[in-house]
Task: structure prediction
Amino acid sequence: MKNIWKYVLIAIPVLLLVASGTFYFIQMPTQEKQNQYAGLIGHGNAFLEQKEYAKSLNAFNEAASLLPARFEAYEGATKVLVAKNQLGQLATLLDNAGMNLSSEERSKLYAMLGNGYLAIQNPSQAQIYFEKAIDQSYQNDVAKVGLAKSLLMQGDYMRARNYLDIPTNSALYEEAYVLKLISKFSDLEGIKEVLAENLTPVDPNIKKIIDDYKNVAKRDAGEELYIKALIGRVYVNSGYSKMAVALLELSKDALMEYSDGLYVLSVAYFNLGDYDDVTTLLKDFSNPNADHDFYLLAARSYQYTGDNTEAIKSFDSAVASSGDKNEEVYKEYVKFLLSEEQYVKAKEVLDKADKKFDEVWIDTAYLQMYTLQKNISKASTYIEKLSKVSDMTDLEKKEYMYWAISHYIDQQKNNDAIIVLAKLKELDKQNAEYYLLAGRLHLQTANVTEAKIELEQAIDYDLTGEVVEEAKKLLSRVN
Result:
């Protein structure tokens, strides 16, 4: 599928919270209000569990209008809007309507919003709402740990330390302990001091980080470059790439002779969106035995800078240097070529992969390519071939069905499209791509009402942004 800028727009009004209800609700007995409120919260949570986000938000909206001083409706609405990445609307909601709640309740909701911003790698916005959460309740450990994370993501490790006073009996203590290590930057003595607490973690991911720091603590202070590379790798793997850059950038020249450290710095640049820095750094790195990961990183960076010629050269080098482990390299290469409509090169790479591997993804990629090219006979050949494969994973089935349905719709073979659509829905009834394709089919058959319903459902189910842009374009033909 084509990569689409990831943003999601929920096609319903944001939750409206009111200070008082209508005359009818004012007259309703208190117990009846409470019963109705509980029922609406139950419906909202059930719809949320089923990923029926519009229905869920409507239920929470109605519940909050009924009893605006109760917390559950706000909490439910917050979960929906975080899931749908409607964080700006959620911020407005909490700022304008949260005064109905206690300080502790407002603190909890602001922390949820902060974590929503962390999830989309926006630490500066996350910081704002974690600070609001702490202003409402300094006892909110979730907010303190979240604020420390957001500060570390921005490279402010000195200030981050101020929010890691988490008690040992807190469920967040292990996480805070790791953040203390991370906040020590390159201070070996400080790292050793934290390690002296001898935490035995339950979480295997936390154990891995602590083990990495124990390895750091064993090194001699003279092994500066090696120590920096070890710590930089922890930073990159933990989401603190700005810290890795601050740590390694001053040693850039020395890293040219140390490939592990150079790769860590390159990944940090990439994670921060500094793609020109990646390509500049790797262009100066000449090593005939370089791992294919270097070439892949360069290829991805050239994609983002719009230099497809260099991206293809780097992908070719990645294939050549990856040996027998290059199936995933081929996959990524083909996906890039198809997204850029480089069909001649895509066929060349697919033909090479087809000689090396006997995998479903190759035939599905051929089907995608021929569908996009409107090559009816060859697309039909691969649909027939794939329809006979009995051991596909569900993910492989969905990918194959998507392109088969797209082909049928393009060729106005509506009955065939309907048959495969039914199988796709049976496989995953919450698949946003199913509703997108169903909307396309209804538009083709001039069933505007059903098309609108299906396309709005596609937007509601989509959490990744993979289909929303196309769904909105099709909806513009309906509205």
In short: The radius of gyration is 26 Å.
